[in-house]
Amino acid sequence: MGKKGKEKATAPPPTSGSSGSSKKTSKAATNNNTNSQNDDFIVFTNSTKDPKPKKGGQGSSNAGKPGAGEPEASGPPKPTVKQVIGGASWTGKLPVNLLSEHCQRQKWEKPDYQQIKGKDGFSHFVKLSAKHPKTQEMQTLPPFKLPPDHIHLVTRPTALEARHAAATYALFRVCSMKRIDTTLPPDYKALWKQFEELKKEDIKKGNAWLYDADPFATAKQRESDKAAAEKKRKEQEAIREKAKNMPGAAGLVLRSNAAEKAGGSGGANPMKGWTTAPKVEMGKKTRSQLEDLLRREVIWNPHGVKMSNAQKAAIIKELTSSGFRKSHVEEAVGECKDREETLEWLLVHVPEDDLPRWALPESYSAGVSVAATHDLKREAAIKRLSQSGYSAELCRKVYDESNGDEGRTALALQHFLLSSGDGAEVSDTPDEPFISGTPEECWADEIDSLGSVFGENFKRVSDDVCQIRIESVRNGPQNNIETLVQIRKSPRYPAEIILAILADLPSYIKLSLIKKALAYVNESLSEEPMKIYFAVDWIQQNVNNIIERPGKLRDISGVASTAAEVRTVAATQRKPARHPKPLAWFADPRSREEWQRRQQSVGFKEMLAQRQKLPAWQVRERLVATVAQNQVTIIAGETGSGKSTQSVQFILDDLYSKGFGTAANIICTQPRRISALGLADRVSDERCSQIGKEVGYSIRGENKSSHETKITFVTTGVLLRRLQTSGGSTDDVVASLANVSHVVLDEVHERSLDTDFLLSIIRDVLKKRKDLKLILMSATLDAATFKNYFTTEDLEVGLVEIAGRTYPVEDYYLDDIIQITGFTVGNDRFRDEGSFDSDDSAKDPINKTIQRLGSRINYSLLLETAKAIDAELYHSNKKGGILIFLPGVAEINQTVNQLGSVSSLHVLPLHASLDTRDQRRVFASPPAGKRKVVVATNVAETSITIDDIVAVIDTGRVKETSFDPQNNMRKLEETWASRAACKQRRGRAGRVQAGKCYKLYTRNLEQQMAERPEPEIRRVPLEQLCLSVRAMGTRDVGGFLARTPTPPETVAVEGAVAMLRRMGALDGEELTALGRQLAVIPADLRCGKLMVYGAIFGCLDEAITIAAILSTRSPFVSPPPDRRDAARKARMRFSAGDGDLLTDLRAFLQWNAMLTDRAPQRQIRQFCDESFLSYQNLSDIAATRFQYYSALAEIGIVSPARPKAVPMALVRALTASAFTPQIARIQLPDKKFTASVSGAVELDPEARTIKYFTRDNGRVFVHPSSTLFDSQGFSGGAAFVSYFSMISTSKIFIRDLTPFNAFTLLLFSGAIELDTLGRGLVVDGWLRLRGWARIGVLVSRLRGMVDNVIAMKVGDPQIDVQDNEVIRLVARLVEFDGLDA
């Protein structure tokens, strides 16, 4: 509480009613308070007692005031301040008091009230002050003022009320986050609510700082920020002033402007990061060839994308501010698909003399030729020819083609001008006007008449050339511009004249004037022998109008720019897709009769008797009825129930019996090849038909089906590829299934990526094809998930459950198995610290053994367990096999080798990589006296059924596809299986009799396993899936994937689409030709990109080999520590300084050549040992290589005969391109020199002084195992390295490196941005290259042409494009880093 002051006059008593509410009271209070500016008493007391009267004469206002505790002498009692402000019954605190208390608590000075009297009443503003606790410096805040349109909130009839309203606002400013309003009088509580609405508006405007609890700290921070901003502004001004003097700079930066708008800082040094950036140059001859190629081949906006008006307006504003003419930008946005293409279009089409300064090369000077001057006559002629606006480069090219004849060159250039633009035509044979004499006589007569008519404005330059001055020419603020029309006698005179305009006007205006004048001549003066006067007169009358409205750049850019296309080239139209004919649903009596005859055969009856024993037979009629009544049917059945073999037969038999056999076409998908093969064999046997006739299969690389086939078993990928290659639209996908009556998706419970993708596609197809039936089959009863997925789209769903036919299975866990086998692990054996079951206090030897075993597979325990099971079955005289579940091929091979030592066992591997013949061996009976042991991956869980299995050994491990962030690629990673998967494995032991399941994990661990596997769509990178979705014509990829049964995260989808754009598979929202190819290649996208480019550039064998190396592992072994130096030397023998992968490639090719030459096996093994190569790894690479060749052959990509060797520089470039955006920038140290006899010699930098930087991780280091670890320099002008994997230990290391040069980066990496300070180019958003902006445009356009070549290859896979002009130019750019060969 503050000190009490002396009271000044209070309001007189009201004439009627309660105190503090009537108008009369207010008026009286106003009158009596006019001299009361500082009411200390009101501010600093909470007392409810009447204050003591002042002593002495203080005016009549105190005359009648009683002393403390004394009653009024006469009349009603005067109202107190509380009664005036709060009302008659208010007993709480007042706003002024609350503000004072808050200031005291915060150790601020007392509030200062500033009164203002206006025409509407009184108002107050509050000013707060505070002393700094250390410096004692007084800080005073600006008054708390409301916005002008809210000042009425604190305006009151009396100064007293106004003061409390101002105090309320001041309280709100520093305490708005507290509920102080609950302690305020009613009127001021309502005022607080109005202030809350004002705060919301201020927050929206970005003024939330107004309501900070500590306004003094906020004020200091804002002052500091303001000072810093002012400092930055001044620095930026200084930098921009300096930037104006930089070569090629205009001081206007599109990139920095965009950064500033996004909240970035614009005050940085504009040359930071550019001085050390690699310089990119293009040889004059190479650039000329590229520009000539672009003139003939370039396509702008091939997909016809239309920008919105808002997009166009933003681009026009931005590019106009960067120095382009508004009319040019408006024309460009009408033709282009986005900002980047608009900028490229302008840099190609705008003549050099009208480009912004930043877009010109450093050596450019208008009107000055920079060509070699050894031929002065040629250069003088070219200068004259280019004065009319023709490109100097084009003039040189045409001049040379015209054998140095200036007249023929001028005529050819004019023909180019007339033929450029949309719909332009030039007549090769203009009409010959009638003349009385020879053309020479006619020319002489016309020249004489022109001299008479134009007088001093006429000048004869030579016998064949004259000039006429045009008067009163204006260009904006410029008046009386010196303008001459030059007329040259044409070889076809008088039918044709050659015009030129010589004036200080932009090239495109002069050319537009020439073109329009010639159009007038050809249209109106074709029969006039003396055309020149009329042409000049037309120019004089129209010149100023044409300068104001010159027309489109495209109409003249073909001759004004060396790279602009001569005509508009239409995008190549894709061939219409061919689709099967729709099914004809009509009853055919012959089909029914044929079916009835087949049923009478003895073999069919025998098979039928066996089929009737399966549990599925019991629900045959219900299953058929459910399929007939519903568009979607879900069949849930345990393994061994017969659902996979019988369901499709039930449906087909029903169609036969109704006469619809001719319309039947059932496709049944399987997740693995072995399942499709096994089921096709089994079903064809049960139907007594030959495989490939009534029942067939189609897997990658193998197809056995015919026009007779009614049931086709396919892998999921085969059906997906059929849909992906259907034509590129949703309707094409629907049409591709026109001849299919039923689609059966088996094993949907596995939730693979392909299965979920198919579910989403076919759900959309079902809405358009009501006669198509979908059957889902699952080994587990999780029907609710799938049922809800289809019922939400108003599709009818039926459910059929098939009971399993299994015998009891007894479980043995790890502790039981150790007890049965007596297995122990020595103390010297490896113990996995990641063991799930560890009880240090346990003294039980079994628990100790479990602890020492850890979570890794122990092959000795596997061997002992298999031997114990075999012995038990032998002593009990039981037949039957053993099935062992392992995670992958390597584990299977090791187990097969160990079990092979047991003579009583017949051991067979089973995994998806085996060929068909080896896979089928597992179904056959073992040799006499031996027990069959099948060592399998999870393909044996549900996909196939081996009938004679009585015991299962389950390691509990599985390899699942996951995303590896270290190398940004998919990989198979070993992990614990789910409980649902282990249940399926267990069930395999109870197919023919009571069985046993031996689980090599504990009960506790089983409870920690996931209940079901995570759907693959949620745990793998989505680039391949997004590409597949787009390849089928769906533009809204995110929306499509959001409709899958378990949608992936939006961020993952957006990241995948962005990555596809960076890879070149998508151009905006459109699929590129490269993207269409990648969508159908069954490989990681980066490997697929490498193989596509390998096919296009004629190095397919090398590309496939490197892709196989990436997909498997390096052929070199990891040596023990004591042999690392020897291993490194051995590896370096294959290195040529071009990176790790090309080193691996050479090693493989040498090994492969030895195999091809049939070298002795001992010699090959010795070569591997001496070179530290793994024979097994090399064999795996060869197998993967063969698979890739087969897959590419399916889509038509084959390796053509190559007459010449492939340059390794090209292979290196394509290898590096496959890893985008996994790129590191090489930063070399400053050059050092040493003295020698011949002068200073540059020293190679030490390897440790060379630095590497990536976009996301900053500085990284080359891994010691890399062949580039000790490199002191890089061949081929390499300035960047691509990497395959990144490892973070004590430092961040990059491995599997491939160095590459600037043009490889430009041609194959991310988007190219143009820096408009003239400093160079930015690739993929962060990699800088110093160079001319037009180089970036030319290369960007060349990229599009490479995609067109890929499209040609897609349309005709047999075509050899190695000699294509585009491909040869790209190869030369990469090999020579842009310089002339």
UniProtKB/TrEMBL annotation:
SMART domains: DEXDc, HA2, HELICc. Residues 624-799 form the Helicase ATP-binding domain. Residues 1-84 are annotated as: Disordered. Its EC number is 3.6.4.13. Gene3D superfamilies: 1.20.120.1080, P-loop containing nucleotide triphosphate hydrolases, Ubiquitin Conjugating Enzyme. SUPFAM superfamilies: P-loop containing nucleoside triphosphate hydrolases (SSF52540), UBA-like (SSF46934), UBC-like (SSF54495). This is RNA helicase.
